[in-house]
Amino acid sequence: LIPGKTQEKLIGTVEVIVTTDFLSQEKNHIIYSSTIIALITFIISILIAMINSRSISSSIINITNAVKSINAENLETNLHSTNGGELGALETNVNKLSSRLKKSKENEKIHLEEILRAKAIAENANNVKLDLIGVYNVNFEALKIIVNIFVVKRL
Predict the structure, then answer these.
(1) How far apart are CA 153 and CA 149, in angstroms?
(2) 3-state class (DSSP) for residue 132
(3) Are 55 and 83 within 8 A, CB to CB?
């Protein structure tokens, strides 16, 4: 209270005496408490970092395994996206890649079957052509013999 500034009566005064030992103890207590808080914060930060890194590495391992499976032509591979962000987008794109490769393989199989059918038809047509050429050659040879006989008789 400041005398003359308030309308209340002054009852008494309080004197505070602080020793250097007390201040030293309080300083040490504050340093100790701050150190404990810093250590706890550091440990919590490490735990959070470990949890996040496991989550990220787990996703990367799953993506790697899926890509290896697709490379081994297991086109039924499908990742279940558990993450958002870049890893989730990568998982989604690996799924799209697998699906498109599967469709391409199916189309390739259909086109190969069409090519084999066309090849069989072409081979069949070629065999017919060769048979016709053989018949014409036989007829041509017979015609040559007849002409030669005719020419020889005329002479």
Answers:
(1) 6
(2) helix
(3) yes
pTM value? 0.55
User: CB neighbours of 88 closer than 8 A, spacing ≥ 6?
Assistant: 81, 82
Tokens 């499908």 locate to 78
Tokens of 103: 């469709």
Distance (Å, rounded) from C-alpha 60 to C-alpha 82? 12
For 52-65, how does the pLDDT look when each residue is reduced to its tens digit (9 = 90+)? 898 888 888 988 99
56 CB neighbour count, 10 Å cutoff: 14
Nearest to 95 by CA among 115, 116, 75: 75
> How many Å from the N-terminal Cα to the C-terminal Cα in the chain?
162
Asked if 59 and 91 count as a contact pair (C-beta separation under 8 A), the reply is: yes
Q: Where are the alpha helices (DSSP H) in 11-84?
A: 20-71
